[in-house]
Amino acid sequence: MISFAVSYTWDPTKNNCDAQCNIGSPVPICENQNKQDLVDTWRAQGKKVLVSFGGAGMGGSWAGDNNDCWEYCFGKEQHVINQLDTIVRNQNFDGVDIDYEYFYEDGEPYTQGGSSGSVARNFIETVTVGLKNTLPAGQNMITHAPMDADLVMSSSYYQILKNNADSIDFIMPQYYNGISRPMVDGLFGTGDGTMSAFDHYDTLVGDIFWGDATKVVFGFCINNCLGSGDGPMAAEIMSDLVLAYPCNGGAFFWVAYDDIGGSWASEVRAVTQPLVGCSLGPTPPTAPIAPAPTPTPPAPTPTIFAPPTDPRNTPTNFNFCGTSWGDANSKCGIPCTDGVSTNCPPGESCYSDCHSCDGVPAPAPTPTAPTSPAIVEEDSRLIAFVGNWQACPTPEQYQHYTHIMISFAVSYTWDPTKNNCDAQCNIGSPVPICENQNKQDLVDTWRAQGKKVLVSFGGAGMGGSWAGDNNDCWEYCFGKEQHVINQLDTIVRNQNFDGVDIDYEYFYEDGEPYTQGGSSGSVARNFIETVTVGLKNTLPAGQNMITHAPMDADLVMSSSYYQILKNNADSIDFIMPQYYNGISRPMVDGLFGTGDGTMSAFDHYDTLV
User: Fold this and answer.
1) Separation of alpha carbons 529 and 507, rounded Å
2) Residue 606 is inside which H or E element, if any?
3) 55 touches 23 (CB < 8 A)
4) Contacts of 280 (CB under 8 A, 6+ apart)
5) What is the rounded CA–CA span in Å between residue 20 and residue 72?
6) Which is nearest to 250 in space by CA: 278, 288, 227?
7) What domains are there in the chain, each with its CATH number?
8) Could you give the CA distance from residue 284 to residue 93 in angstroms, rounded to a whole number?
9) DSSP label at 174?
């Protein structure tokens, strides 16, 4: 990145802006000279060489900076595009990086008459898209290098990039002078910074670039920045990033002058070099998507690959014999590829999902379902909600299930007009399993087969937030959090459940139409959070799975329910967003589409991940 193409001459007091936004040309490469031979040499070596337009000297948004040369370019977007197009063609660059660190919101301290937030935003957007459409093919890479504080979801800059992502090859957030300080706090930490660099990076990947981490390049500063750091520390951060995003956009750094002898770059390149070509593979789908990223890890664990020399390394079947699943999974002895115990020695049974073992080829025809106990893997679930007033599922049905949610534990008796809420929030017990009966034998059978059986507390009958619903039984439970926790703990122990699912579809924001005196948004939010954490800490070990099954509209980033789950993620085993009654309709629009729904299910899911 040749830094910078500018429309001023330098002055130590205040740069002298060109009133017509004439950009100096040719742009110096280094040592204030146009060393075209260097550009040609670099490109001949396969490197991409871009010219970076902007930088701090054009004007910065931080306190104490008085430069305002960007404002002389507002309204002259086509003139800027034309000049940069000429520069790229004449100096044989591969594209343009936009390094804009100035104001763009309404009400900020612009200096020139006619400047405003809308004018600034139009400038950024028009130049970005205009350059992409104007520069010659093969020389039209467009990148941005904003400060991290300008790339939070509430900022207009963020929205500009999101809305024009198809015109941007990649972005390079600066993780050294703003809200995150990974060189001090580490990739996942805060302290010196107010937001972890990983949380920031993860949001950019998921929300702007549909999960494609190759579009986000991690930014470092070697020296003289608030978050500067040496090569080994930067390499450590990139190593952590690789664990979460094995195929990412790599790193950038400011500035080559401080990379003495290439020592900083060599440390970081040792981490990024093995990933070269990671994004190559099958022809991508036409929708602008990429595989969903590895979930955000509180403490990342590296992916373990099976040894390539193992002749069994075609992982299509993981059934092995043993006296228990743990025995089978640890010794990886005799495979039972048909999924039946008759393949095993006397005293042993066939167990599935032994993922500590290398896979063995599946036989032909397709193997039948194993008759011996199947141990649930928490990464390959098929979860069925069982309405406890409905017919019990048959063996033909439940043979496919890994988890069963008994729906619902409630504190009302049903009435077709309005359910009769128990004023003390006493939960009916024992909870019926199906056909309105406590069929404990079914629970015991399912658990003996390795299935997880949870009781789901709540459901629509407790109260819903949609128009026309008049049930409000949740409100009689507000303030009685410990009573709810104690009752559910007793139910789990007595009925041998594996945990509790919370199915809350009621109000939780301020100003919503609560019906009972004393109810409010803060009271509702306290209820959800206290019960979630309290159950996790109270239920017996081995029976303390906690899940949530909210409507998708309640899991947007601006909602308080989203924030409750985010803040208490360590108390939640998994969540099950409902993609059928809310803002996304994948069964109509497909996973990536909108139309019947207002948001694609993939965008929603990806943000949660």
Assistant:
1) 14
2) helix 601-608
3) no
4) none
5) 7
6) 278
7) 2-275 (3.20.20.80), 310-375 (no CATH), 383-578 (3.20.20.80)
8) 28
9) B
Rounded to 5 degrees, φ, ψ at 361 are -60, 140
Burial 442-452 (b: 16+ CB within 10 A, else e): bbeebbebbbb
pLDDT band at 325 (very low <50, low <70, confident <90, very high): low
302-325 burial, b for 16+ CB within 10 Å, e for fewer?
A: eeeeeeeeeeeeeeebbbbbbeeb
AA identity, residue 326: G
Joined together, the tokens standing for residue 139 give 């020389």
Output DSSP code: residue 171.
E
Per the CB < 8 A criterion, the answer to whether 120 and 113 are in contact is no
Cα–Cα distance, 200 to 150 (Å, whole number): 11
**Quick one: which of 242, 232, 301 has its CA closest to 276?**
242
Calculated CA dihedral for residues 31, 35, 37, 40, nearest 10 degrees: 100
Backbone torsion region of residue 61, taken as left when φ is above 0, otherwise alpha when ψ lies between -120 and 50, otherwise beta: alpha
Per-residue DSSP letter, 148? G
How far, rounded to the nearest angstrom, does the alpha carbon of residue 319 sit from its chain's CA centroid?
Answer: 33
Quote the CA–CA distance of 576 and 554 in Å, as a whole number. Answer: 12
Count Cβ atoms below 10 Å from residue 391 Cβ, excluding itself: 10
Note whether 350 and 334 are within 8 A (CB): no
Length of the chain: 609
Beta strand spans in 137-281 (E): 141-144, 170-171, 218-221, 251-254
Of the candidates 521, 532, 520, which has an alpha carbon nearest to the alpha carbon of residue 566? 532
- One-letter amino acid at 572 equals I
Return d(Cα 115, Cα 71) in angstroms, integer.
7
Please answer whether residues 148 and 178 qualify as being in contact, where contact means their C-beta atoms are separated by less than 8 angstroms: yes
How many other C-beta atoms lie within 10 A of the C-beta of residue 272? 20
How far CA 124 is from CA of 2, 27, 118, 145, 159, in Å, comes to 20, 21, 10, 12, 11
Cis omega before residue 365 (within 30°)?
yes
Structure tokens at 250: 């790599």
- Residue identified by tokens 């990429």 is 290
Greatest distance between any 2 Cα atoms in the chain: 90
Helix (H) or strand (E) holding 118: helix 117-134
DSSP, collapsed to helix, strand or coil, labels residue 53 as strand
CB atoms within 10 A of CB 195: 17
For 15-71, write each residue's pLDDT tens digit. Answer: 999 999 999 999 999 999 999 999 999 999 999 999 999 999 999 999 999 999 999
User: Given pLDDT bands bounded at 50, 70 and 90, which one contains residue 361?
Assistant: very low
**What mean pLDDT comes out for the span 173-199?**
95
User: Where in 468-537 does DSSP place strands (E)?
Assistant: 499-503
**CA-closest candidate to residue 467, choices 512, 400, 521:** 512
pLDDT one-digit tens code per residue, 421-439: 999 999 999 999 999 999 9
Q: What is the pLDDT of residues 70-97, one digit of tens each?
A: 999 999 999 999 999 999 999 999 999 9
CA–chain centroid gap for 435, Å, is: 40
Strands 349-351 and 320-322, by their bridges, are: antiparallel
Q: Which residues contact 413 (CB under 8 A, 6 or more apart)?
A: 419, 420, 428
The region, left, alpha or beta by phi > 0 then psi within -120 to 50, assigned to residue 332 is left
The pair phi, psi for residue 54, each rounded to 5°, is 125, -120
